[in-house]
Amino acid sequence: MPKLREVCRHVRSKVAGPFWVTIDLFFDGEENFRKYHDNPAIRPQALAEIYQTEPALVSIYPVAALNMIKISYPRDRPQGGMIERDLHSGQQYVYLLDVEMA
Amino acid sequence: MVGGMQTPSEFTSVRLFVPVGQLGGGVRSDELAAALKRGAEVMAMDAGSTDSGAAYLATGTSKNSRDAVKTDLRLLMTAQHEAGIPLIIGTAGQAGGDMNVDWTVEIVLEVAREIGYRPRIAALYSELSCEVVRARNAQGRVKPLPPLGDLADETIDSCRHIVALMGPEPYIAALEAGADIIVGGRSTDTAVLAAFPLWKGAPIGPSWHAGKTGECGSQCTARSTHGSGVFLTIDRDGFEVEPLMEGNACTVHSVSAHMLYENSNPFRLTEPGGILDVTAAQYAQVTDTKVRVRGSVWEPQPYTMKLEGASVGQFQTLMMIGITDPAVLSNLDLFHDKMRHTLVRRVERTMGEKAGSFDISLRIYGWNAVSGRPVPKDAPPPREVGVLCVITADTQDLANQMAKACNPYFFHMPLFEGVELPSYGFAFTPADIPRGQVFEFRLNHVVEVDDPLELVRTRWFGDFADPARESANA
Fold it and tell me: Does the predicted model carry a pTM greater than 0.90?
């Protein structure tokens, strides 16, 4: 069972406005994209658990031309408040790297 | 409004130069010369973003240094003067509030004096008072965007500054009135770049898509750190994009992937007055360095402007220590919990009721400061850690007093009782840093308008309007 980091060539995250985070998963080739892009480990239910949000608020957009999917979800709190650990949300992708793709 | 415009029969193409992803980021004179040689008809870029947080809107200050912005403006305005092409800047001064715009205009006027010319400068303001937003909200013309709900008056009143994101129309009106330089307040990045092509009659979908592609300058190129700018040509059928630097290239991948950047939806981008839909866009490599894009579609929608509001909250004071003590490093979770408990008790005992509502947050860098999540039990101890103590209180003085009360404990708390008091590594004296206020974005709403200009004010700067001076210099 491969980990997400083993089937992607690049993974990144960033704020998309003060209230949302967006994660780009670029799969390593067309075959990995086809095989894994809709894996249960990276569907709304599982992602909502990792990022502490509602599954209904998690959007996933496959972009087949680029062998990638975009995942967007709301921040658990708006950017820059009293307790802020990652203002740009640039480190949030890391929690997906070791997810096992069943 | 641009929504219903047809591409006029006389339109052939328009050449747009984006000198840099953000004014102050480092305009390059070699790229500027290359762009003018290629016949650039306009220079357009934004000067800000919400990415760096609400502080800049809340305080009306810039993230970029004045010198960095002035250095870029001197290059751009010299080119503007010599080539006679418009210079368009959006989201001035990082946040695009009125104070941020005025700060930028002042630098523009200073540079104009130093160069010795008198451009027609239009400043576009889109800051709204709480009263205006409350009135629109009462009319039911403010709508929430997920994940937020309906807008309460208290939320509006909690904002120190509120801006509405402008579309291209105020820029087009200023161009129509003869502006040489436009300093715009908060605008969508895309609108700042799309304004000139739309004004020239370029097709709407490609103009917006070109704007999205160029919004971060060289970010859409294959070597995004090789150069600052990008060159876009919009024609009747689509647009082309290419870098300015030798040795760089735009590729189908670099250009199409940029549509993903900082958007929650990679195919549909909501803008004032419509949606850019690139689902059917086709990307083709036309030369080694140039990509052609066709099939971008603009779907007109009722005109809305997104609102951004920044609130000011409590005050913070920081302290920091470094730890290499192996006993502490082997018990970091215990150390964290004991330290936090000790500091909170210390504040309660020394300040009592006076402390008000306060928070003490300890972030152990090198352990779990960034994630804030539990560390697996079998994780090996790190070589060293930094511990940041963030104290939040109702006033700066209270936060400072709490830091002083905590100081001896933060720097010398032993992990276990009965040992000699340790001294953790601290890097400066005094040890406490007053950090200022907590700033937060509070609005994620749109306001409906009948006219794209109704919430926008335009002010003209420069002494060109004085006929005596005009003729004296003629």
Answer: yes
SS3 call for B252:
helix
Closest CA to A42 of A73, A85, A14: A73
Residues 6 or more apart from A74 whose CB is under 8 A from it? A19, A20, A21, A53, A57, B146, B147
**Chain A partners within 8 Å of B256 (Cβ):** 65-66
pLDDT 10s digits, B402-446: 999 999 999 999 999 888 999 999 899 999 999 999 999 999 999
d(CA B35, CA A85): 41
Predicted-assembly ipTM surpassing the 0.90 threshold? yes
Q: Give the separation between CA B203 and CA B197, rounded to whole angstroms.
A: 8
| Crossing angle between the packed helical segments B332-351 and B396-412, to the nearest 10 degrees | 130
pLDDT in tens, B135-191: 999 999 999 998 888 999 999 999 999 999 999 999 999 999 999 999 999 999 999
**Measured at the alpha carbon of residue B199, what is the angle toward residues B196 and B203, in degrees to the nearest 5?**
95
Contact criterion met (CB < 8 Å) for B50 and A88: no
Low-confidence ranges of chain B (pLDDT < 70): 1-5, 463-474
Alpha-carbon distance of B252 to B239, in angstroms, equals: 13
User: How far away is chain A from the Cα of B466, in angstroms, using its nearest Cα?
Assistant: 43
Summary mean pLDDT of chain B: 95
* Residue B148 forms contact with A (CB below 8 Å): yes
CA dist., res. B334 & res. B326, Å (int):
14
Q: Which residues contact B265 (CB under 8 A, 6 or more apart)?
A: A59, A61, A70, A72
- A65 and chain B: CB distance < 8 Å anywhere? yes
Q: At what angle do helices B204-214 and B189-199 cross, to 10 degrees?
A: 140
Instruction: Give CA torsion, residues B80, B81, B85, B91, to 10 deg.
Output: 40
| Other beta carbons less than 10 A from residue B234's beta carbon | 28
Q: What sign results for the dihedral spanned by CA atoms B71, B77, B78, B80?
A: positive
Task: Order across the sheet with B297-300: list the strands.
Answer: B268-271, B274-277, B297-300
With vertex at residue B187, the alpha carbon angle to CA B83 and CA A57, rounded to the nearest 5 degrees, is: 140
Q: Where does residue A85 rank: exposed (0-12), middle (13-18), buried (19+ CB within 10 A)?
A: middle
Structure confidence by residue, pLDDT tens digits, B294-328: 999 999 999 999 999 999 999 999 999 999 999 99
Residue A25 near residue A42, CB atoms below 8 Å? yes
Q: In the prediction, which pLDDT does B464 show?
A: 57
- B144 upstream amide cis, omega within 30 of 0: no
Name chain B contacts of A86, Cβ cutoff 8 Å. 370
CA pair distance B51, B69, nearest whole angstrom: 18
* In chain A, % of residues over pLDDT 90: 93
Q: What are the Cα distances from residue B46, in Å, to B88, B96, B211, B212, B369?
A: 8, 10, 11, 12, 33
CA angle B306, B308, B311 (to 5 degrees): 160
How is B314-362 classified by DSSP, letter by letter?
A: EEEEEEEEEE--HHHHTTHHHHHHHHHHHHHHHHHHHHGGGG-S-EEEE
